[in-house]
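FAQ: What does the model actually see?

It sees only this:
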Amino acid sequence: MIPIIGLLVGVIIGILVPYHIPTQYSPYIAIAILAALDSVFGGITASFQGKFNIKMFISGFFGNAILAAMLTYIGKKLDVDIYLAAIIVFGTRLFHNFAIIRRFLLNKYLKSDNI
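And it is asked to produce this:
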């Protein structure tokens, strides 16, 4: 429940607070957002499975975002698209966690229909 509330609060703040990100920072912010979303979806999945741990969630949230931004920075300095590895991994994990969440919600919904 905490990840869902955090996601909603973040979206609302993002909509209400006008902030312009300079173009040169866009790749870093984009990959950090992708990493953070991966952590949020992972937290929701863990919550549904009864394995949610706030310390793991917070460390993963910030750790993933910082690591992904660092990979992007190093890749830009080396002129190598290292950030693509992070995009592939985080994207794959996002879809995997979404599939777990979807299955959980569908099973819960279908069970309530049969009663």
